[in-house]
Design goal:
Distance between the termini: 55 Å
Bound molecules: alpha-D-glucose-1-phosphate-6-vanadate, cobalt (II) ion
Strand order of the largest sheet: 2-6-5-3-4-9-8
Number of helices: 18
Helix content: 25-40%
Strand content: 25-35%
Number of strands: 27
Radius of gyration: 23 Å
Shape: globular
CATH topology of the largest domain: Alpha-D-Glucose-1,6-Bisphosphate, Chain A, domain 3
């Protein structure tokens, strides 16, 4: 069809709500299915990129509801906007870290990731889209700001009038004048993992009859990756990976690997017959949860232990330059960095802030309290990577997860840590709460046995390019090392979510094995008093505690 090669110009008018949040544009599926909504955003990206004409892009998503339609729309628009070539995962599937790797490996110009991550999916669930740049990482704020500005003045988008492309088999296709290559979503990623970890040692561990593990893919994207790597390559018993088939609605659950949403897995690690190792990943495969028998590794501790054991892992031995963590993440990793004499960085929430530090070689590991850990192997957090890293540590030390944690705390002290989320708050109420917290005069005030030594609204200046980001959350530090952080979520799709991050440092090994919520009880009370959350919203308790 000759006509299909000529871009069609479609008139449109702006939507006013296309500002990317912590991780791309995230809205309900009904919002994304409004006519022209996705098209406007994608065109705004093309209009903001210096020059995507003649370049290669990578496109893939976590398989959630609307993934398949969205990919066809993006492919047509890419062709109409002059993109030369697109690599797309078979059936439109690619995990977020796999997209990042493919961009880097192929030298692509960038890529689109389709996912709302840990948010639920389905016709009434959430959808999302994110643009990643040539380093494989999320677009920096300078670009997302430009996209938002473009979305407010958009008047037309470009597309082709072509039938849907078959993405179910591997190999080359053409769409208009654009080449489309349907690639195996797993192969390149699995090969990368093999270069980083001691697969022989992990394989020996997984085959031991006395080592019992489970990986819960939560009906999301990591199922095929985990099966290929853990079961097929490393020889873990069949059935080690559960909920391994990606479903458009994740089986009706939140694909969010935490103590609340992966409760069944947590249960399987409890008691004398509990699993030795449990792990889970989220909707798009970039988050992870690590469990041992009767124990849970906070993501903040996970980052610290990963850094502390770098010498045991082939891809990292002898080259640890530094560690970065998002501001609300506990200071556990800083303590390891200090001891090792390497750099420690504190960034705003969201993986896009790690990109420059990784590119500049200032850090090798990055982590967020929200079940995100990763390294310089890609420019996204990476769920399965973290699981393989932990298996590598277990295999090389011969210790259990609980033993590793206890030894780590004895050496560095323990950062008791928890996050309390209040979801679906009235946006105006939540904004007022934050404004009052910012304005409060807290320095020097006492709360119980603690006095406030730090009170600010976190701002960050990127040490690589000097870009400044303000308003990233209210930090309240106390004289005994405890800390409370308040911030509003930037990934929700309705109302506001208040996140309260609580941590208390304990140096004494005799007091490092208490129940976290009990240890934090007085800090929780202080956080409630400071914010007035109950009086303001009528909420006596958080919706989710992790
Ligand atoms: C949350 C987490 C943040 C994470 C982001 C994206 O953001 O707190 O640490 O980077 O989700 O993760 P917020 O703004 O809701 O707190 V994912 O797995 O969506 O890509
Ligand atoms: Co995610």
């Amino acid at each position: 069809m000759h006509e299909s090669r000529v871009p069609t110009v479609i008139s449109t008018t702006p939507f006013d709500d296309q500002k990317p949040g912590t991780s791309g544009l995230r809205k309900s599926v009904p919002a994304f299915r409004q006519p022209r909504y996705l098209e406007n955003f994608v065109q705004s990206v093309f209009d903001s990129l210096p020059d995507a004409r003649g370049r290669t892009l990578v496109v893939g998503g976590d398989g959630r509801f609307f993934n398949a339609e969205a990919i066809q729309i993006i492919l047509r628009m890419a062709a109409a906007n002059g993109v030369a070539r697109v690599l797309v995962g078979r059936d439109g599937l690619l995990s977020t870290p796999a997209v990042s790797h493919l961009i880097r490996k192929t030298g692509a110009y960038g890529g689109f990731v389709l996912s709302a991550s840990h948010n639920p999916g389905g016709p009434d669930g959430d959808f999302g889209i994110k643009y990643n740049i040539a380093n494989g990482g999320p677009a920096p704020e300078s670009l997302t700001d430009a996209v938002f500005a473009a979305s407010k003045r958009i008047a037309r988008y470009l597309t082709l009038e072509t039938p849907d492309l078959d993405l179910s088999t591997l190999g080359p296709r053409t769409l208009g004048e654009m080449a489309v290559e349907v690639v195996d979503p797993v192969a390149d990623y699995a090969a990368l993992m093999e270069t980083l970890f001691d697969f022989a040692a992990i394989s020996a561990l997984l085959k031991r009859p006395d080592f019992r593990m489970r990986f819960d893919a939560m009906h999301a994207i990591t199922g095929p990756y985990a099966k290929a790597i853990l079961e097929d390559r490393l020889g873990a018993p069949k059935g080690t990976v559960v909920n391994a088939t990606p479903l458009p609605d994740f089986g009706g659950h939140h694909p969010d690997p935490n103590l609340v949403h992966a409760a069944e897995l947590v249960e399987a690690t409890r008691g004398p017959k509990g699993l030795d190792f449990g792990a889970a990943s989220d909707g798009d495969g970039d988050r992870n949860m690590i469990l041992g028998r009767d124990c849970f590794v906070t993501p903040s501790d996970s980052l610290a232990l990963i850094a502390a054991h770098a010498e045991l892992v082939p891809g990292y031995a002898g080259r640890l330059s530094g560690v970065a963590r998002s501001m609300p993440t506990s200071r556990a990793a800083d303590r390891v960095a200090a001891k090792l004499g390497v750099g420690a960085y504190e960034t705003p929430t969201g993986w896009k802030f790690f990109g420059n530090l990784l590119d500049a070689g200032k850090v090798v590991f990055c982590g967020e309290e929200s079940f995100g850990t990763g390294s310089d192997h890609v420019r996204e957090k990476d769920g399965l990577w973290a699981v393989l890293y932990w298996l590598n540590i277990l295999a090389k030390t011969g210790k259990s997860v609980a033993e590793l944690l206890a030894a780590h705390w004895a050496e560095y002290g323990r950062d008791y840590y928890s996050r309390h989320d209040y979801e679906g708050l009235d946006t105006a109420q939540a904004n007022a709460l934050m404004a009052d917290l910012r304005a409060a005069k807290l320095a020097g005030r006492r709360f119980g046995h603690r006095a406030v030594t730090l009170h600010d609204d976190f701002a960050y200046t990127d040490p690589v390019n000097g870009e400044r980001t303000a308003g990233q959350g209210v930090r309240i530090g106390f004289d005994d090392g405890a800390r409370i952080v308040f911030r509003l979520s930037g990934t929700g799709t309705s109302g506001a979510t208040l996140r309260i991050y609580l941590e208390h440092y304990e140096a004494d090994p005799a007091r490092q094995h208490a129940e976290t919520q009990a240890v934090l009880a007085d800090l929780i009370a202080t956080a409630k008093a400071l914010s007035g959350i109950e009086d303001r919203t009528g909420r006596a308790a958080p919706d989710v505690v992790t």
